[in-house]
# Entry
Amino acid sequence: MTQRPQPPAPAASGAARWAPPPALVGFLVLLGLMFAGSYAVGAAAGPVAPGMRSSDPGTTGSERGPLEPHGHGGADDAR
# Structure
């Protein structure tokens, strides 16, 4: 008689044995470092165009209507 191979016994907790591949961990660490570095450089450089503001000093960018052009006031400025 030939003996059949027995399947491995289930582990007590499957989640405790699972680990992500080292390449995935390395990629995520590198991605985090690149994000942190680019954020630091952007914060040090400041705004790209400091003079670009809304033509109406009382509004912020989120208060404009959905059809108004960005930074150009509105339809009344077309004349």
Remarks:
- DSSP finds two helices and no strands in the chain.
- The first helix runs from residue 14 to 17.
